[in-house]
Specification:
By secondary structure, the chain is an alpha/beta fold. It has one domain: UDP-N-acetylmuramoyl-L-alanine:D-glutamate ligase, CATH 3.40.1190. It has 11 helices and 14 strands. The strands form 2 sheets. Strands 1, 4, 5, 6, 9, 10, 11, 12, 13 and 14 form a 10-stranded mixed beta sheet that branches. It is globular and about 55 Å long. The N terminus is likely disordered. The structure holds adenosine-5'-triphosphate and magnesium ion (MG). The site of adenosine-5'-triphosphate has 19 residues, from helix 10 and helix 11. The site of magnesium ion has 3 residues, from loops.
Length: 332
């Protein structure tokens, strides 16, 4: 009798705990969800970049958490947005670093799959004394993210989903399938990066047509459309997106929705390292969009967040906090 009573209580409390946790998940509406590669960036400062049959030596080494969408999502979390992520890491040291870092930044990690086998994604960068770089990407388990591993509940429970590139075909196909299934009120933001831009318009069309905003840099836009950026923006807008924003490096950015267009001047700052400038820019711009700022203001916030990023070493160290937006006259 006593055992039955205990069991009844346990079952009841378990059921109600499950109901409460389901309700918590249902109630949590995210501002932005990222879906892109998760990598540890391993940066080797070398004497010189070795050519074929040559040998060189390492002077210094550092590692940090990276991945384009992941950097952008961390940038948005720092600005106080509710964020989550879909991706895959392995059960290894690098995977733990990536998950711990997201948790510290208050990015929800429930949508990230931990694979029992395989390696987490790694990007190895070799930088010589002149600052020339050679990069090797080891996508690891990023490239075997299956359709069933994309948590549809998370995906439907966000205002915006931000898509960036993977090396392999499987995740790209899953991103295409995912955008087909999205409820209409979920906005899609798409930064193709070089890896996807190289694939060309015909391969990327299903994502571009469903995107609310496309965020290439100048070179990527030219790859996609074959023309200089002002003409390229028109071509992209004709495919369906409502906004196209082009990152122009030291010239700032150009933003357009077809009705209004603005060239937005960058912030002049002392540059330490431009790694992740574009990802930081996306964070500021998307923050502005989700806060219903004007197009011009979104571009300015993008330039501001990017300028803070390039003042520090690495893609994330300089990403500003919400309170820092006061510096450009924005109060949350
Ligand atoms: N030299 C610079 N001075 C001031 N701002 C800069 C400079 N370089 C980059 N930025 C800022 O960073 C933003 C993004 O840089 P960029 O145009 O190089 O994007 P990207 O090529 O996508 O970058 P990434 O290499 O991170 O992918 C620019 O729109 C600008 O606001
Ligand atoms: Mg970029």
């Amino acid at each position: 009798m006593f055992e039955i009573w205990i069991n009844a209580i346990n079952q009841e409390s378990i059921d109600s705990a499950v109901r409460i946790s389901e309700r918590v998940v249902l109630m949590t509406k995210y501002d932005a969800l990222g879906f892109g590669a998760l990598n540890i960036d391993k940066l080797f400062k070398v004497n010189k970049i070795a050519g074929q049959d040559e040998e060189s030596f390492v002077i210094d080494y550092s590692e940090s958490c990276g991945g384009s969408a992941a950097n952008t999502i961390v940038g948005m979390a720092r600005l106080g947005m509710k964020t989550s992520f879909i991706g895959k890491v392995a059960d290894d040291r690098e995977g733990k670093l990536l998950l711990d870092n997201f948790k510290r930044e208050e990015v929800d990690t429930q949508g990230i799959v931990v694979a029992r086998r395989g390696r987490s994604g790694v990007v190895m960068g070799f930088v010589d004394k002149e600052g020339e770089r050679a990069l090797y990407v080891d996508p690891g388990v990023n490239d075997i993210i299956g359709q069933k591993e994309v948590n549809l509940h998370h995906v439907r429970n966000t205002r915006l989903i931000h898509l960036t590139s993977f090396v392999g075909e499987m995740p790209l196909e899953n991103q295409k399938k995912l955008v087909e299934q999205l409820p209409e009120d979920v906005k899609v933001s798409f930064d193709p990066g070089m890896l996807y831009a190289e694939k060309g318009m015909s391969i990327l069309r299903p994502i571009i047509q469903r995107a609310f905003v496309v965020l290439p840099n100048e070179v990527e836009l030219k790859m996609l459309t074959g023309t200089e950026y002002k003409e390229g923006i028109k071509k992209l807008l004709n495919e369906g997106p409502k906004v196209v924003a082009v990152k122009l490096n030291k010239k700032g950015c150009f933003v357009s929705n077809g009705e209004e267009s603005h060239l937005v001047e960058p912030f002049r700052v002392k540059i330490v390292d431009t790694t992740g400038a574009g990802d930081a820019w996306n964070a500021g711009f998307l923050y502005g969009l989700l806060k219903n700022k004007s197009l011009m203001e979104c571009g300015r916030i993008g330039n501001f967040v990017a300028s803070r990023c390039i003042m520090k070493l690495g893609a994330r160290a300089g990403l500003p906090k919400l309170a820092d937006l006061h510096q450009i006259g924005i109060n949350g």
